[in-house]
């Protein structure tokens, strides 16, 4: 038994290492802000903290535009060209230049809206401080390290910069008026950690950014477009919740939703890297039997995570936010269904749709889920129940639609 286990570990060492560092990277980002949450919610107050979440939800749209669904196609290209230095250089250059083009467009849009929309104009300094982090997503090539299956350096660098930011937050963020200080610290920490990772790609792997033809850039955009559309729907769905809550109810309700989301992000983060970690190896050798087993295990893992949230979520909510934000626990229960959708739908996308060049199914899936979310959310708020819990119900129904569509598509096309 021991020999068999050692053999299994040995054969999948890269997958295990990649999963560990990817998960640790995600856990680091989630747990870091979860660790600081009790301090921040008490010194900033639920209204100010809710405003910060509201602003960063809007900034997410700019980050999304810059990423443009490049990550999965770029990871695949890196994985299949790992020994071709010339191709690696070309891929890195194409992605970097493409993201810079989109950053320039994003900045123009941001500046126009900053002086036109009242909500942005009234909070312009907070928006500007938060927008500082956007260029970090041009510089951060996580997709490159995923492709070469080596995320150790990225993880260590992000950990170091997160730790360095703690004393700055504790000394410069002590009351609600220090909200902009907090936004600046977070943005600069993100920027400098991304810059350091980018320099590793440049120096350690000796990959230079060179001019790329328009044809190559168009090719990357064409390959990434299906992922952009599917991610567009998902981003609108995820980021719209704080914006709707802030506009319809208030910033305290945004803080309540954020805490509920943080509770489900812990198990979601622990498991969501599984599919991405397996992807580079499995893409080269598709095995339907293995894929079916992976999906079955992910259903079970998600169910256990949902059960644990139902049992222990209330205690976690009280510990982090106190009695004032106890509604976050009840909101986290319907939201926990998104853990299952992230895991199971992620497996279907990575291991059945993408390898069979059925990227359009990803787009259809997300469009359906987004439509269900908005119909349930807006219709429910106006006609059924004017409550923040309606947002959780809408997210849960959208997650269920994602899973059902994947099951239907796989059976109809006989992909497994």
Number of helices: 17
Q: N- to C-terminal separation?
A: 30 Å
**Can you give the mean pLDDT?**
85
Radius of gyration: 21 Å
As a percent range, the share of strand residues is under 5%
Please mark out the parts with pLDDT under 50 across 5 or more consecutive residues, or reply none: none
SS content category: mainly alpha
Q: Biggest sheet, open or closed, and with what strands and sense?
A: none
Q: Level of helix content? A: over 70%
- SS elements, strand count: 0
User: What form results from the Cα inertia axes?
Assistant: globular
Domain module count: 1
The succession of helices and strands, N to C, reads: HHHHHHHHHHHHHHHHH
Quick overview of this protein structure:
The chain is built from 17 helices and no strands.
């Amino acid at each position: 038994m021991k020999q068999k286990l050692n053999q299994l570990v040995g054969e999948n060492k890269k997958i295990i290492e990649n999963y560990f560092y990817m998960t640790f990277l995600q856990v680091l980002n989630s747990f870091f802000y979860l660790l600081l949450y009790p301090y921040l919610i008490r010194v900033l107050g639920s209204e100010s903290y809710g405003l910060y979440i509201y602003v960063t939800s809007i900034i997410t749209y700019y980050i999304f535009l810059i990423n443009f669904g490049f990550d999965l196609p770029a990871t695949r290209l890196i994985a299949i060209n790992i020994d071709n230095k010339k191709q690696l250089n070309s891929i890195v250059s194409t992605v970097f230049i493409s993201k810079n083009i989109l950053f320039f467009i994003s900045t123009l849009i941001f500046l126009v809206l900053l002086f036109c929309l009242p909500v942005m104009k009234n909070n312009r300094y907070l928006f500007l401080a938060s927008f500082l982090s956007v260029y970090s997503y041009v510089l951060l090539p996580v997709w490159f390290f995923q492709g070469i299956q080596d995320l150790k350096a990225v993880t260590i660098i992000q950990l170091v910069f997160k730790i360095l930011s703690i004393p700055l937050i504790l000394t410069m963020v002590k009351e609600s008026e220090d909200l902009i200080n907090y936004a600046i610290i977070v943005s600069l920490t993100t920027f400098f950690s991304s810059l350091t990772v980018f320099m590793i790609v440049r120096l350690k792997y000796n990959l230079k950014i060179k001019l790329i033809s328009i044809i190559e850039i168009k090719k990357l955009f064409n390959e990434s477009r299906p992922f952009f559309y599917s991610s567009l729907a998902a981003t609108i769905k995820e980021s719209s919740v704080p914006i709707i809550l802030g506009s319809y109810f208030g910033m305290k309700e945004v803080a309540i939703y954020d805490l509920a989301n943080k509770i489900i992000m812990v198990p979601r983060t622990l498991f969501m890297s599984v599919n991405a970690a397996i992807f580079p190896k499995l893409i080269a050798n598709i095995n339907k039997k293995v894929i079916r087993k992976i999906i079955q295990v992910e259903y079970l893992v998600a169910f256990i995570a949902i059960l644990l949230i139902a049992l222990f979520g209330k205690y976690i909510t009280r510990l982090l936010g106190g009695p004032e934000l106890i509604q976050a626990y009840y909101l986290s229960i319907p939201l926990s269904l998104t853990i299952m959708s992230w895991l199971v739908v992620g497996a279907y996308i990575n291991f059945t749709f993408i390898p069979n060049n059925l990227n359009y199914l990803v787009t259809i899936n997300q469009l359906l889920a987004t439509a269900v979310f908005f119909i349930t959310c807006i219709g429910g708020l106006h006609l059924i129940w004017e409550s923040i819990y309606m947002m959780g119900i809408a997210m849960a129904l959208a997650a269920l639609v994602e899973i059902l569509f994947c099951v239907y598509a796989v059976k109809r096309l006989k992909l497994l």
